[in-house]
Design goal:
Layout: H1 2-25, H2 27-36, H3 42-62, H4 66-84, H5 93-123
Length: 141
C-alpha cells in the first residue's frame, strides 16, 4: 500500500504543481483575471498563491510534513472557490457553468486535501513512504 499512497500523493500534488507553475509563468494574465475578481494588487496575489500552492504540493508529494502541505492546499482552495468562482453571481449562462465547474473542482479538491490531512495525522510517518512524520501528530489523540 505504501506505493499506492505515494502514487496518490504524487498525482494529487501534480495538479497543484501545474497550477503553481501557471501562476508563476503567466503572471500578467493571471493578475488581470485576479483583479477582475476584485483582488488588488493582482500581481502579488498571483505570485503569493503560486508560491503557496508550490510549497503545499511539494510537502505532500515528498511526504515532508505532508499534513501541513495538505492543510495549506485546503486553505488555498476554499477561499479561492468563493472569491474567484462565484458562479451564483454570473448572468451569462455559459460563464455561469464555467465558474460553477471551477467552484465545484476547488471545493472537491479542498475536501480531498482535508481528508489527506486527517489521513496523514492519523497514519503518522509509517505509511506511504514519507520523509517526515506529521507536524500535527498531537492532534491524532
Amino acid at each position: 500500500m505504501d506505493i499506492v499512497i505515494l502514487v496518490g500523493r504524487i498525482l494529487f500534488g501534480a495538479v497543484f504543481i501545474g497550477g503553481a507553475l501557471g501562476h508563476l509563468t503567466q503572471i500578467e494574465p493571471m493578475a488581470a483575471y485576479t483583479e477582475s475578481k476584485g483582488i488588488r494588487p493582482g500581481k502579488p496575489a498571483v505570485v503569493a498563491s503560486g508560491v503557496w500552492m508550490l510549497a503545499g504540493a511539494t510537502l505532500v508529494i515528498l511526504g515532508a510534513w505532508a499534513d501541513l502541505g495538505a492543510l495549506m492546499l485546503a486553505a488555498f482552495l476554499l477561499p479561492t472557490a468563493f472569491i474567484m468562482h462565484p458562479y451564483w453571481a454570473e448572468q451569462d449562462p455559459q460563464a455561469k457553468v464555467n465558474e460553477q465547474n471551477h467552484f465545484m473542482k476547488d471545493v472537491s479538491l479542498a475536501g480531498a486535501a482535508l481528508a489527506l490531512f486527517g489521513f496523514f495525522v492519523t497514519a503518522g510517518a509509517g505509511t506511504g513512504l514519507q520523509l517526515t512524520g506529521p507536524l500535527f501528530a498531537s492532534l491524532a489523540g
